[in-house]
Amino acid sequence: MNLENTLVQMRKGILEYCILHIISRGEVYASDMLDELTAAKMIVVEGTLYPLLTRLKNAGLLEYKWVESKSGPPRKYYKLTEEGDTFLKGLSDTWEDLVRSTQMIKTKSNS
Question: How many other CB atoms are found less than 10 A from the CB of residue 56?
């Protein structure tokens, strides 16, 4: 079994959750999301991020607006919808449950 493939799948599994968390803080530009994800070692490329943002938008979890830029073309800024906020809260509850469950399994002794 290939460790690298498993690590990539683990990161992909929580990428949507991380992106929704970033957007939940306020309107954000995709390039800033990429920077934060990269800094957190959640290796992501534009070819992964943009289709995911489109899917989340089509699901009604986020929306965007165009903002004129002084240094180039207009920028698309994303923000959560009410539905997206509710969805993120559900994901957060599940994440906390998974962390507790994983810790329980990792710390159980062989007695």
Answer: 21
The pLDDT assigned to 48 comes to 86
d(CA 84, CA 62): 6
Note the pTM of the prediction, 2 decimals: 0.85
Q: What is the CATH number of the domain that holds 24?
A: 1.10.10.10
For residue 64, the Cα-to-chain-centroid distance in whole angstroms is 16
Supply the range of the domain harboring residue 71.
3-107
Pairing of strands 62-69, 72-80: antiparallel
Mean pLDDT of 6-12: 82
| Secondary structure (H, E, C), the chain | CCHHHHHHHHHHHHHHHHHHHHHHCCCEEHHHHHHHHHHCCCCCCHHHHHHHHHHHHHCCCEEEEEEEECCEEEEEEEEECHHHHHHHHHHHHHHHHHHHHHHHHHHCCCC
